[in-house]
Write a structure and sequence with these properties.
Cathepsin B, Chain A, 9-stranded mixed sheet, 9 helices, 9 strands
Length: 331
């Protein structure tokens, strides 16, 4: 009996002391992260965010302990659930990408093994940050138009996402609730152009349209859609012409992407499931023979690899080949 009592006491002692130790360690990491990202909460919010952060960190650690083609890491979103993240940062209105047959005409190649438009000249603007607004489609649009104009003229100008948020609603776009780059290019084509970032600065919320045609700095002559599911045509466009927009399905694991080639079994690959728009600025193949796209995101430079990510190429990963487009500029 005495031995049993000692065992019970010892087990209870370990339980009581180990649990707070784990919590203290998690809280230490959380407070470090809070300091790094200038986060402040009231008491109730603090404990809720600590719990969410802990769950995210455990998921990240489990992923990184496995055998995957990409790593995950803590970032500015680590105190958010995926449901919150989706509501603030992704397209929440259903998107109708109807361009199953596009206007892009491919050639037969051959194509370089590696292309990165950032290395070919001053053709890609710095990574921007969409903030708490599902306006990724506007950044994909401006990024592409900025590049095609720079390639054609040698002048790289930062263009206005806020004009698209405020003014492009008649073209089936919904401001901070979502839209499509192809529809944004249509708006620019038929609405007398797009102003610069400087003249129409970004606010990260829906506002009244204050477009001034006299200040328009970029114009679209033609909108070119690439046939859905044709990644070879996407390679042709990026290799020969310019960066291109694409949309895809973001799931919880992508929110925590750090580096490597993103590949997922969780995401969907159909046009009706896409919820994020980005800019493909190049492509390549890694040392293991895995082909990838080089992609500019709009979540700031603290996310991913300086604001960029790689995603597996050639398999319509997460629906990335379902809705791709680029503009022909009117110069």
């Amino acid at each position: 009996m005495a031995l049993s009592a000692v065992w019970v006491f010892t087990a209870a002692f370990c339980y009581v002391h180990s649990t707070p130790f784990i919590l203290l360690e998690e809280e230490y990491h959380f407070k470090q992260w809070m300091s790094q990202h200038d986060k402040v909460y009231d008491t109730e919010e603090y404990h809720h965010r600590l719990h969410v952060f802990t769950q995210n960190k455990r998921m990240i650690d489990r992923h990184n302990a496995g055998n995957h083609s990409f790593t995950m890491g803590l970032n500015q979103f680590s105190d958010m659930t995926f449901e919150e993240f989706r509501r603030f940062y992704l397209l929440t209105q259903p998107q109708n990408c109807s361009a199953t047959r596009g206007g892009h005409v491919s050639r037969t190649g051959p194509y370089p093994d590696f292309i990165d438009w950032r290395m070919k000249g001053n053709f890609v603007t710095p990574v921007k940050n969409q903030g708490h607004c599902g306006s990724c489609w506007t950044f994909s649009t401006t990024g592409c138009l900025e590049s095609v104009i720079a390639i054609a003229t040698g002048k790289l100008i930062s263009l206005s996402e806020q004009q698209l948020v405020d003014c492009a609603k008649d073209f089936n776009n919904y401001g901070c609730l979502g839209g499509l780059p192809s529809q944004a290019f249509e708006y620019i084509k038929y609405s007398k152009g797009l102003m610069t970032e400087e003249d129409y600065p970004y606010k990260a919320y829906n506002d009244f349209c204050t477009f001034e045609p006299a200040l328009a700095a970029a114009f679209v002559q033609e909108v070119v859609n690439i046939t859905s599911y044709d990644e070879k045509a996407m390679v042709d466009a990026v290799a020969r012409l310019n960066p291109i927009t694409f949309t895809f399905d973001v799931t919880a694991e992508f929110m925590h992407y750090r580096e490597g080639i993103y590949s997922s079994t969780q995401c969907k690959n159909t046009a009706d499931s896409v919820n994020h728009a980005v800019l493909a600025v190049g492509y390549g193949t890694d040392e293991n023979g895995t082909p990838y796209w080089i992609v500019k995101n709009s979540w700031g430079t603290a996310w991913g690899k300086d604001g960029y990510f790689l995603i597996e190429r050639g398999r319509n990963m997460c629906g990335l080949a379902t809705c791709t487009s680029y503009p022909v500029p009117l110069l």
